[in-house]
């Protein structure tokens, strides 16, 4: 492997990794507030991308299509929470998780009927002239994805640490009942989490569509990788989600270079398991405190 | 703190994996066939009243197509053509002086439905022969049934296994099979491009893997050396890592075997990495969707296809006449342009009617030997030469190479 090749593997890995990181952030957000692992997370990514394609085809400029898609999917997230999660808030977390599995299938089927089976493209945000970093090359679109990831993780960190609403979310995550007794509306926290999580994933979906296209089934793979990244980083930690995503992306890319593309996922997931074996709480997760 | 239940996490991982596999499986149903290029809003009637010409009991021919469901862009034109052919044949006096009735069943793009429909056609309707199916999956599912019943079946799907694996005594096909497309692409690389070192990038699904195996088998015979073989998963969003590895092996041309969107991702990624070697695709990108997805990166991409995509490439006068007649009839009947799949249905019905006429009988064994004896028969897919051992009928010369230039298809001579 030459140095240029090595560099390209790292750059490719970071590019893909930031997509996983964005999805992992969505998982993290909902998990923090509710303990729910939202299986429909990848579907929010897919809906974001496809909605933007439709809006762009209606003649709207790209920035408007981007904002429109984020808003529409945010609305979908809110409706999903109201219709499917809210009635089960008193049931076990497992019941809520199962509902998200059903929802992911429903979203996927709807997308197949509405947008068809073909993957759809979107023009690149700022051209397609590759950016050279020594011997490696990346598309300007990757910078958009990485930039958005950075902005979101900083914003989330500020939200959790500095705002009252963020502190309310953290309080609910630690102990919903105690939080409720303190006057925090748990159901509102859940609703906000779903809305923001859907919006983040949708934004990610729009940004990756120009380079990797979007089809009705694209969400499944992105959801799986995003979930793995969230676990690797330590469920619940936004910085962990980003680190987990980038680590997974680079691991996959190097696995292609060193072993073979056929073993890409196997290598990445083996390392994931190994990390969890040593640090079950993930890279940035906090070791759970057992209460007696 | 969170009650982190390891069992839940493991169950969740397993469930996600399962979901993912379901997603992948769904994607594979269209892999053996290229998506259509024209939308056919067919209004062909299924009117079966026999015209004045032919008389007596109608000759019953069964057909199983995917008129609805995911494969309907392929199956619906096939259904329209079969309905059109029934009228056309009967207007021309029928077969053996009797009218023909083509009973068309819809398998809803589901191999299980295809099996049910086939059993109904054979046992209830007692058809003399069967045309079908649209997808490779359904064709392979009903193949044992027609073989068991001894009913001639004309397949319209491209998977190698349809005629490569037994039972194959009762099945013939009209599309160019996958292996033929691979052979044509290699011929282009070796003879037209004149290079020797090639790399292969293929999808890991059945279509991509069998194509790559075919290329690996035939390349040495043409003096081609495969310096790198890499693969990707159908829903991979980026193949720059694979391409970086391929680039390191310094090939003179890259063959990409898969169906959308993978090959379009590869084309874009090649441009990103500044790889300027020729890109040779599979017949899986013989659709406008590839051009839409890859955009500028599609320029200069070359792929094998049937001659129907570039009618001017047909040199055989008999085939030229058949194709232009078919195109005119299809346009008159449906108002749209026929795609490759419409052509497959036309060829299947024409070959079958020709065999019944030659056999002067509707006896299955007589039709079987007539089909095996069919040679030099011009169709939309090429010149068919069946024999008792060759149930594909077509050769490498029945395919051409198409180049993408200015966002359109051009015949690459």
What is the gist of this entry?
The complex is a heterodimer of chains A (292) and B (413). In chain A, 74% of the residues lie in helices and 2% in strands.
* Cα end-to-end separation of chain A: 53 Å
CATH architecture of chain A, please?
Orthogonal Bundle
Give the averaged pLDDT of chain B, no decimals. Answer: 84
SSE series of chain B: HEHEHEHEHEHEHEHEHEHEHHHEEEE
Shape by Cα distribution of chain B: elongated
Low-confidence stretches of chain A: none
- The neighbouring-strand order within the major sheet of chain B is 2-1-3-4-5
- Strand % of chain B is 15-25%
Strand order of the largest sheet of chain A: 1-2
- Largest sheet geometry of chain A: 2 strands, antiparallel
Distance between the termini of chain B: 70 Å
Q: Largest protein interface?
A: A-B, 67 and 52 residues
Q: Summarize the amount of helix of chain B as a percent range.
A: 40-55%
Shape, principal axes of CA atoms of chain A: globular
Overall tally of domains of chain A: 1
Overall pLDDT confidence of chain A: 89
Supply Rg of chain B: 22 Å
How many strand segments of chain A?
A: 2
């Amino acid at each position: 492997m030459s140095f240029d090749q090595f560099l390209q593997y790292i750059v490719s890995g970071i590019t893909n990794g930031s997509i996983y990181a964005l999805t992992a952030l969505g998982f993290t957000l909902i998990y923090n507030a509710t303990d729910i692992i939202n299986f429909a997370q990848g579907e929010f990514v897919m809906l974001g991308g496809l909605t933007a394609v439709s809006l762009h085809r209606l003649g709207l400029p790209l920035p408007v299509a981007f904002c429109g898609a984020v808003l529409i999917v945010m609305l979908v997230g809110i409706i999903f929470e109201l219709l499917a999660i809210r009635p089960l808030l008193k049931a076990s977390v497992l019941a809520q998780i199962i509902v998200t599995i059903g929802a992911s299938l429903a979203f996927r089927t709807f997308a197949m009927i509405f947008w068809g089976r073909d993957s759809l493209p979107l023009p690149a945000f700022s051209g397609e002239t590759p950016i050279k970093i020594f011997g490696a090359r990346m598309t300007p679109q990757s910078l958009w994805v990485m930039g958005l990831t950075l902005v979101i993780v900083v914003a989330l960190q500020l939200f959790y640490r500095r705002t009252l609403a963020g502190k309310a979310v953290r309080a609910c995550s630690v102990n919903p009942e105690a939080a409720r007794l303190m006057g925090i509306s748990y159901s509102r926290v859940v609703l906000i989490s779903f809305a923001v999580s859907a919006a983040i994933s949708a934004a990610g979906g729009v940004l990756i569509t120009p380079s990797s296209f979007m089809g009705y089934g694209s969400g499944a793979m992105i959801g799986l990788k995003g979930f793995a990244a969230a676990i690797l980083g330590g469920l619940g930690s936004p910085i962990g989600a980003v680190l987990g995503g980038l680590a997974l992306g680079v691991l996959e890319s190097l696995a292609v270079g060193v072993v073979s593309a056929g073993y890409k996922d196997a290598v990445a997931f083996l390392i994931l398991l190994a990390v969890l074996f040593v640090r079950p709480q993930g890279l940035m997760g906090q070791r759970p405190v057992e209460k007696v | 703190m969170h009650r982190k239940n390891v069992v839940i996490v493991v169950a969740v991982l397993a469930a996600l994996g399962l979901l993912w596999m379901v997603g992948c499986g769904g994607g594979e149903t269209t892999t053996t066939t290229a998506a259509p290029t024209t939308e056919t809003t067919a209004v062909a009637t299924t009117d079966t009243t026999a015209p004045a010409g032919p008389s007596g009991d109608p000759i019953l021919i069964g057909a199983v197509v995917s008129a609805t469901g995911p494969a309907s862009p392929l199956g619906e034109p096939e259904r329209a053509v079969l309905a059109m052919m029934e009228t056309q044949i009967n207007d021309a006096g029928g077969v053996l002086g009797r009218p023909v009735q083509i009973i068309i069943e819809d398998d809803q793009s589901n191999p299980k439905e295809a099996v049910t429909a086939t059993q109904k056609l054979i046992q209830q309707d007692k058809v003399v022969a069967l045309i079908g199916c649209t997808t490779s999956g359904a064709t392979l599912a009903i193949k044992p049934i027609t073989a068991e019943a001894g009913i001639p079946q004309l397949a319209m799907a491209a998977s190698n296994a349809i005629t490569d694996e037994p039972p194959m005594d009762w099945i013939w096909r009209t599309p160019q099979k996958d292996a033929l497309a691979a052979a044509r692409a290699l011929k282009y690389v070796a003879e037209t491009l004149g290079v020797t070192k090639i790399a292969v990038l293929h999808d890991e699904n059945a279509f991509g893997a069998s194509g790559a195996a075919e290329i690996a088998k035939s390349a040495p015979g043409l003096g081609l050396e495969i310096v790198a073989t890499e693969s990707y998963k159908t829903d991979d969003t980026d193949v720059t890592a694979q391409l970086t590895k391929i680039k390191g092996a310094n090939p003179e041309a890259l063959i990409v075997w898969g169906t959308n969107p993978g090959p379009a991702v590869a084309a874009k990624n090649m441009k990103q990495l500044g790889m300027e070697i020729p890109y040779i695709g599979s017949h899986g990108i013989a659709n406008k969707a590839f051009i839409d997805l890859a955009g500028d990166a599609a320029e200069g991409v070359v792929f094998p296809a049937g001659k129907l995509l570039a009618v001017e490439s047909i040199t055989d006068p008999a085939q030229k006449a058949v194709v232009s007649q078919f195109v005119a009839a299809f346009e008159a009947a449906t108002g749209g342009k026929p795609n490759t799949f419409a052509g497959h249905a036309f060829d299947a019905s024409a070959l079958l009617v020709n065999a019944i006429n030659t056999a002067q009988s509707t006896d299955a064994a007589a039709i079987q030997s007539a089909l095996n004896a069919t040679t030099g028969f011009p169709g939309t897919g090429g010149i068919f030469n069946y024999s008792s051992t060759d149930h594909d009928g077509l050769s490498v010369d029945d395919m051409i190479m198409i180049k993408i230039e200015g966002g359109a298809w051009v015949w690459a001579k």
